[in-house]
User: Which sequence fits this backbone?
């Protein structure tokens, strides 16, 4: 669950900009469920769930590459980035959900 007050989700479904949500398993402060809730509410979202709570800060260069690719408009949930990452990706565009994508490294 959430450690803080629940997120006011009013209006999140109106945000049509592509949104990258980075989350991780095993993190009490930023639980995976928080990212999943945002993913469910945002219509044009990509969720990247890391396998551990310390994943992002132990792989700074990979994290920066992932963010840079997303900002550049590349599909980070498929292709080389997803295949090289142990993260699990989910992508949806304008409310249409794609199949979950698990990278080959994490499978």
Assistant:
């Amino acid at each position: 669950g959430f450690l803080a007050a629940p997120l006011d989700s009013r209006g999140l479904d109106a945000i049509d900009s592509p949104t990258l949500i980075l989350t991780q398993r095993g993190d009490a402060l930023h639980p995976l469920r928080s990212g999943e809730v945002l993913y469910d509410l945002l219509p044009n979202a990509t969720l990247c769930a890391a396998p551990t709570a310390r994943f992002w800060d132990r792989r700074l260069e990979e994290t920066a590459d992932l963010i840079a690719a997303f900002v550049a408009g590349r599909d980070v949930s498929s292709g080389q980035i997803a295949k090289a990452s142990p993260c699990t990706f989910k992508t949806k565009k304008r409310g249409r959900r794609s199949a979950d994508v698990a990278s080959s490294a994490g499978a």
